[in-house]
Write a structure and sequence with these properties.
Layout (H helix, E strand, L loop, with lengths): L25 E4 L16 E3 L3 E6 L4 E8 L3 E4 L2 E4 L3 E6 L7 E7 L4 E8 L2 E9 L5 E9 L4 E9 L11 E7 L2 E12 L9 E8 L6 E4 L5 E9 L6 H10 L3 H20 L2 E3 L3 H17 L25 E2 L21 H20 L10 E2 L18 H16 L2 H22 L1 E3 L2 E3 L16 H21 L6 H10 L5 E4 L2 E4 L31 H14 L8 H10 L4 H15 L20 H7 E2 L6 E2 L9 E8 L3 E8 L2 E2 L2 E5 L5 E4 L7 E5 L2 E6 L3 E4 L5 E7 L8
Helix pairs in contact: 4-6, 5-6, 5-7, 6-7, 7-8, 10-12
Length: 721
């Protein structure tokens, strides 16, 4: 498999090279995207570096690069919101009416274009640099005559901010004056004391001003810097300096480093399955999260960093009743857990408000509204939880997963455990002990659904919360006195409410209150993401879970894609039906940029592709299960999937049989594997040397840090069937 490319994009490009399956996955555009700008998720080519986001639009003669930034927030009425930075327009009048073709290359994180008209061909390549806050665009042409072009900057939302930034702005560099193509600053000045400010500077390398001539065989480079007051104290001067000091050779170095970053990114894990369309969307989901979230940066909101308007739907904020958490579902087992780090910072910034919110109601611990923003921003209505008491416990899942998959004890001590401890304090205080069991009063299962009793989601969240608190406290050697109380809650927490529908036992949404709802997927979210039911659960509970899936039948849902398919895999639902419906969703709900879109949120759909990981590898119960929900007649393979306990696992299924299994133990934890070869003895190889012979349905063995392990069928005497 090789990286695809637009034929003959640039002279001197390196030849295609072998790679994993990411190599063949590109998004192709043969007409300009139609939904730019938009209040929701744009459908154009996407670029980003975890802070800056750029979406491309416009016709060949007036290509537009819409610029967003994760840290450019303001306050609007009762809520915080993220707003657009501005846009760069690349004008080439000779291309009016040209044939249009662009590729969004996931492997190289760049967009390449070829535009042809009457013997003229213009090629473009654009990327947002992985290290610097730079948007870079290369242009080359073939033809008999030079082609004129120009660059223009404008700021904000084009619907309400049509102003064009000044061109030919002077900028000093090394005691000489250079005229850059354009420059502007924008301030979110309606957020007192916390307003963000941003500067954008554009330059055509080797040209003074905004106009350039594109000559056959000669490259033109346009560089645009985007910096905020979080990036540099004097962000305005820093932005201009960044483009002024850039040279063509330095831009080539940046391109090489950019490609190296993304090569390392894709090398962390891979999967290959027969259905190339589903596989493509899996890679696209990782690409989107890798482009809009990065350690040390502000977390992305509903629409990532691709803001084309000052009025995004739902203000583009952090919704805690699943939307903010959902984009990160995929990253843990896909071996990209570091992409979730901005999430925890955003939550910790809001903890003081969460404590105050709980105190206003006479509760303890931390309790959150539905909507928050970065730096502790929250609605002017500070108690807007819409009747849902579950938000802080819902948030806790991502904290739990980071610890489970990385076993980062320092992080657990300073971030993970303290947050879970405050969340547990709320529930220790809020739960009522009645008639020998703990019950949950006045907790809406749906937004504003009323004073529900024992909503099924909260019951699932609490089982996962207190189970993990016990093991975490033992790991850290703290709160031993609390473990008895936590175990008591686990032992006596109300069971999941049940009901009969169509002659089958299924779950009831609450014990008293809402019994059913034909929208959303809250009826299975105690399975996933809450993780309270899995393949080790009581078989009767698994049967009820599968009955629930059949009765809900939410294969397409406005808000449910991020949870539904993984929940199906978690309880061993028919894998052929999962794959068939997943393929149908890829065909029906995919934008040209490969992002699935449902309207209830933007980047949240990325989390839904965790279902593929869970079909190939499950470990959330502490047991590594290989291909637990995959059709045995379909081949599949994956590499370096991260399992609970900080194990990296690689395996292949071919002709119905599992091949040897490779495991790297990062932290030296005990390992448990469901025997991939039932009834067969298994040879364990440690660092290339045969070691123990294992047997039984469940293989358990100790490991040491950074140990390379291999499991294969043993050839020991008496082991043959």
């Amino acid at each position: 498999m090789y990286f695809s490319s637009v034929a003959g994009v640039f002279a001197g490009d390196p030849p295609p090279y072998a790679a994993s399956s990411i190599a063949q996955h590109t998004a192709v555009f043969t007409a300009p995207p139609r939904q730019v700008p938009t209040r929701g998720m744009p459908d154009g080519p996407l670029l980003g570096n975890g802070d800056i986001g750029v979406v491309l639009g416009g016709p060949p003669e007036a290509q537009v690069f819409y610029i967003g930034k994760n840290d450019f927030w303001t306050r609007h009425l009762a809520d915080a919101k993220v707003i657009a930075v501005g846009r760069l327009e690349l004008n080439i009048p000779a291309l009016r009416g040209a044939n249009y073709r662009q590729e969004q290359d996931l492997a190289l994180a760049e967009v390449r274009g070829v535009f042809t008209k009457n013997g003229l061909t213009v090629r473009t390549r654009s990327w947002v640099d992985a290290h610097e806050n730079l948007l870079l665009t290369e242009l080359e042409s073939d033809g008999d005559e030079p082609v004129l072009g120009s660059v223009h900057l404008s700021f904000g939302d084009p619907a309400i901010s049509p102003q064009v930034a000044g061109n030919r702005q002077p900028a000093s560099f090394e005691n000489r004056s250079v005229y850059i193509a354009g420059f502007f600053t924008r301030q979110a000045d309606d957020l007192p004391g916390q307003g963000r400010e941003v500067a954008v500077a554009a330059r055509v390398l080797g040209v003074d001003g905004s106009e350039f001539t594109l000559r056959p065989g000669k490259r033109v480079m346009v560089a645009t810097a985007i910096l905020s007051d979080l990036d540099a104290k004097d962000y305005s001067a820093a932005a201009r300096r960044l483009v002024v000091k850039l040279t063509s050779s330095k831009a080539d170095e940046l391109k090489t480093q950019h490609r190296a970053w993304w090569s390392d990114f894709w090398a962390r894990s891979f999967l290959e399955i027969p259905d190339q369309e589903i596989e493509k969307r899996w890679h696209a989901a990782l690409y989107v999260i890798g482009s809009c979230s990065r350690a040390g940066k502000v977390a992305p909101g509903l629409w990532g960093n691709w803001l084309t308007t000052d009025n995004p739907n739902w203000h583009g904020d952090f919704h805690l009743n699943y939307n903010f958490q959902a984009p990160f579902y995929l990253v843990y087992s896909a071996n990209h857990a570091d992409l979730s780090l901005p999430f925890y910072q955003a939550i910790w910034d809001s903890v003081p408000h969460g404590r105050a919110m709980a105190q206003r109601h006479g509760w303890k611990g931390v309790h959150f509204p539905v909507c928050i923003g970065p730096w502790g921003l929250h609605p002017e209505n500070p108690d807007g939880d819409w009747g849902q008491r579950s938000n802080a416990a819902y948030v806790a899942l991502n904290f739990i997963w980071y610890w489970q998959y990385t076993q980062d004890k320092v992080w657990l001590k300073h971030s993970g455990y303290p947050y879970l401890r405050e969340t547990a304090e709320f529930w220790e205080n809020y739960l009522q002990f009645e008639n020998g069991r703990y019950v949950i009063h006045n907790d809406s299962i749906h937004e504003g659904s009323g004073d529900d009793l024992n909503p099924i989601l909260s019951l699932g969240l609490l089982r996962t919360l207190f189970k993990n608190l016990r093991s975490m406290s033992a790991e850290l050697g703290v709160d031993a006195d609390k473990r008895v109380k936590w175990q008591d809650i686990l032992d006596k927490l109300s069971p999941f409410p049940l009901q009969e529908r169509a002659g089958k036992t299924v779950f009831r949404y609450t014990e008293k209150g809402m019994d059913w709802n034909d929208g959303n997927t809250l009826g299975i979210q105690h399975i996933f993401p809450a993780g309270a039911i899995g393949l080790d659960s009581d078989p009767k509970l698994l049967d009820i879970s599968r009955n629930m899936i059949n009765e809900m039948h939410r294969w397409a849902d406005y808000n449910g894609f991020s949870s539904w398919y993984t929940a199906c895999a978690r309880v061993g639902y028919d894998p052929k039906e999962i794959l068939a419906n997943l393929r149908a969703e890829c065909d029906k709900h995919s934008f040209p940029n490969l992002l699935l879109y449902y309207g209830g949120g933007g980047i949240e759909s990325c989390g839904g592709f965790l279902a593929l990981n869970e079909m190939l590898l499950q470990s959330y119960e502490g047991i590594i299960r290989l291909f637990p929900c995959w059709p045995r007649e379909q081949k599949a393979r994956f590499g370096n999937f991260r399992a609970v306990g900080a194990f990296l696992v690689s395996a292949e299924l071919k002709d119905g049989d599992v091949g040897s299994v490779k495991i790297i133990s990062e932290k030296g934890r005990p390992c448990a594997v469901q025997n991939p070869w039932p009834g067969r003895k298994v040879q364990l190889v440690r660092n290339g040397k045969p070691a123990e012979i294992l047997s039984g349905d469940r293989l358990t063995f100790p490991t040491v840090k950074q140990e390379n392990l291999l499991l294969r069928i043993s050839n020991a005497k008496g082991n043959e069937p």
